[in-house]
Amino acid sequence: MAALRVSCGAAASYRLFLGGRVSSARGQGLWKAAAAKLQRSPGCQILRLRHTTVVTTRKNVAALRRETYTVDFIKKQIEEFNIGKRHLANMMGEDPETFTQEDIDRAIAYLFPSGLFEKRARPIMKHPEEIFPKQRAIQWGEDGRPFHFLFYTGRQSYYSLMHEAYGKLLDVENRQDQLRAKGLFSEKTKARDPIGSRWLIKEELEEMLVEKLSDQDYAQFIRLLERLSALPCDAAEEEFVGRFRRSVTIQSKKQLIEPLQYDEKGMAFSTGQGNRKTAKAKVAVYDHGSGRIEVNGVDYLLYFPVTQDREQLMFPFHFLDRLGEHDVTCTVSGGGRAAQAGAIRLATARALCSFVTEDEVEWMRQAGLLTADPRVRERKKPGQEGARRKFTWKKR
Amino acid sequence: MATRKKKLTPPLPEAGHSSAGIMLKGMTRLISSVHKLDPGRFLHIGTQAPQCLAAHLDNQVATESPRAISRTSENDPAKHGEQHEGQHYNISFQDLKTVFSHGLPPRFVMQVKTFNEACLMVRRPALELLHYLKNTNFAHPAVRYVFYGEKGTGKTLSLCHSIHFCAKQDWLILHIPDAHLWVKNCRDLLQSTYNKQRFDQPLEASTWLKNFKTANEHFLSQIKVQEKYVWNKRESTEKGSPLGEVVEQGIMRVRNATDAVGIVLKELKRQSSSGIFRLLVAVDGVNALWGRTTLKREDKSPIAPEELAFIYNLRKMVKNDWQGGAIVLTVSQTGSLFKPRKAYLPQELLGKEGFDALDPFIPILVSNYNPKEFESCIHYYLENNWLQHEKAHTEEGKKELLFLSNRNPGQLERLCAYL
What we know:
GO cellular component, one term (chain A): mitochondrial small ribosomal subunit
Shape of chain B: globular
Main location (chain A): mitochondrion
Pfam families (chain A): Ribosomal_S9
Strand order of the largest sheet of chain B: 4-9-10-3-11
Oligomer: heterodimer
Keywords (chain A): Mitochondrion, Ribonucleoprotein, Ribosomal protein, Transit peptide
Largest sheet of chain A: 6 strands, mixed
InterPro entries (chain A): Ribosomal_Su5_D2-typ_SF, Ribosomal_uS9, Ribosomal_uS9_CS, Ribsml_uS5_D2-typ_fold_subgr
Helix content of chain B: 40-55%
Distance between the termini of chain B: 27 Å
Order of helices and strands of chain A: HHHHHHEHHHEEEEEEHHEHH
Structural class of chain B: alpha/beta
Strand order of the largest sheet of chain A: 3-4-5-8-6-7
Strand content of chain A: 5-15%
Largest sheet of chain B: 5 strands, parallel
Low-confidence stretches of chain B: 1-64
Low-confidence stretches of chain A: 1-36, 60-65
Radius of gyration of chain B: 24 Å
Number of strands of chain A: 8
Radius of gyration of chain A: 32 Å
Largest interface: A-B, 16 and 15 residues
Number of domains of chain B: 2
Shape of chain A: extended
Distance between the termini of chain A: 56 Å
Number of strands of chain B: 11
């Protein structure tokens, strides 16, 4: 038992035994005794068996390496988070009581500005629930007996969910039969919005159940849910099914359409902004024109001597079949020749949205005219000649 | 083959006022007569497959009426008027060889070779100039006309149009195709024999003399030099000998070519006022005369334009102190040295010195095509089957071309080269 005398100060590595690792009864007995002993020792964190003398088995070694967090650890993190939140609110001069997550994000972005491209690499301060992956608590009690009746299937949450769903299905069918027997059956179909929501994907379901699933399991579950939803259900079942649907927003509705503006002569015009790489462009598209385009005060033929750039300018008009109908005045700065052409193209497409029907806006979006090109110059890394190019490899 | 071609392309009345009905009837008759030919004979039509021929026929039907728009049969520039604006007229190969041996822009020469015909569009600036030339008073000093405009709008071709007119009117043409060629990229600069401070350019001078000779053969025997010129110890030209001798001397003795050119210029200037002939001085890119050069002496110091003998003489020529002719010039940025790309006004391109030297002059702006001219140009290309893209015939295709070229003739030509 000497090995069990683990120092209480070693708070760094907690070990949480995810169920079913210790299989032998002898191990169980040892473990029980050890647990009892540890609980009695005061001031010590409850170490649920770090590792016993049988440390050389491969399974346990694998378990060692996995990061596991105790419930207490998580609780401590939550407390620290809340205290930190209040400190942050104080620092920013806001009210600690009404400091929301968005405020936290804004404050962190302000205090720790980062130029990293990968958003996930930037400093964040979120609730520990979101940061630490969900772990399963101990599945069995002091006597070693598991809590859940489906524990020995190996995937208790999944099977219990299937059981529940099937139970509900049977309930609904029973009710239907009863209604039919009474003659009060009415064929009413559900009006679920087929486009507005979607089923959970496998990863989301795994996250919800904190269990690994296989593709067949997932497909089975979805089929069951579809069967359930096809029948007329009442509110409880609806709510049950609703837990497994996520809403899907249609992308194009995010596109703001500016209203047409009118200048002093009564001509309708519309403005748009666009950028590409480092070039920024501001464009005013006038109605009832003759296809004249002026860039920074100069005719577009002189400003863009290369045909490729002029083709870029032509693209939005050509797509909407409005080649000779609009006049354009624009200012552009920064970037290079092609970047400026791309920026003006995006800006004209956005400006043309105001002149055009919703359908055509959707077509433009699908054609990629309304999306800003996110490509920027990649930085050069040390130890390499360029962004990707390595130095010439010399064998010796 | 030639006869069949004639059947397919009947010469239409020029005004094109005949009703569409008659034209269509004519075409249907044509088509039926063509179809009466044996299929075997179709196969002997050069490299064109019968389907292509059918398509060509369709083309002909569609573009039959616009043919009156894009072409005219009036080949004499003297008779060109407002009604011919936008139409192409043909220049005979004879004229090409004599008058335009060195005058046309290289892209146009390529187009002539491809289409096997030289067609020039009649445009407003050229018409304006022709009008002035027709009404010149030869007793007054020569008037200077300057074509200016943005790049690719057709200044050089307008100049060539007026040269053609003058050649037909039997003027003596003094045409320098591109003055910029004289101020750059010259390999051999000799110190001038006549004047020690100046420099000669033998090669360019001799080529120019050759072209000048082909252009004005018949004049060279008529004009006599009015003083004696000594070339070197053994050779000299006596007073009263024809100018052709001076030209020959320049061509043969390349060392004296620049001096020969100088002599020719001097003599022509002196004698044009006498009225035997009328002189047209046409210089393309006249802003080269007053700009900078990229030529350097052996000690790497730059040479100013007036130190080149040719430029010096040419400047004297372009001054309006002689009578009996006209001076037509263009300023262009295309070959110019040290001038910004977007400059096109005479003031910017000539600089202060040049502007003062040329002042007063009549500026004529050459601009992009107007819609009618644009249509005409597209039809010309379609007729010659230059545009092979299937969308080129359609309205949308034309709109695209319009947008991409912004009605600039040079750009349009470059674009159509890809189609």
